[in-house]
């Protein structure tokens, strides 16, 4: 078991994000409707394979530019549901401003273990690095973002030793984790784990909070101020540890936003989150 350098909650915290937002289905329905509209309007390639495994596909929204910044988005869903096609709408403000955007799928729990999901996301990012020039993107300007479980996977990508996987050490320039899960140990005792089927060894192996180390990656860490206590604890603890260890961190707690509304801010060009991410993607 990992020895943690921070204090675990004395009592279990609330991770019931759906119970906290009774009309959560309205948000999910809206994501799908906006995504269908986005796919009708934007040039894109659907279900491009980045591997041979189940759900190892991505949707690519290219740019007409050359050497443009790239935003890779990873969907949430507690690692066991939702799909990249639910989040096509995220691509719109990036493509409008001349960037390329890639929305990725990954194999889902419980059929896939968390560590297998992490490996699949790593494979996706290596594929993007090797192939994004064909779609106008610059492989040296990759930002990765994700929501909820996708925030966990985005954070994991930021601490990956890419040199061990055949990529450049600085493959990921920006990590934009939205309402992420960074310490998986508390999730073991939640009802969500009935669908994930994660054990303690996996929780120890795949917790970004245990991997924090100095690097050149910029971390934009965002959470809705109206989220449940569990998600707020995850954000505050991870952001605090990253700052303590000298990482470049922008810590955003968005007033009035809950777990389902906060992800929309990454697709809102007027939001604090989008402006922070865009500035980081285009810096230098």
Automatic annotation (TrEMBL):
SUPFAM superfamilies: alpha/beta-Hydrolases. Residues 63-164 form the BD-FAE-like domain. The keyword Transcription regulation does not apply. Signal peptide: none annotated. Its EC number is 3.1.1.1. Transmembrane segments: none annotated. It comes from the Bacteria. Keywords: Hydrolase. GO terms for molecular function: carboxylesterase activity. This is Carboxylesterase NlhH. It comes from Variovorax paradoxus.
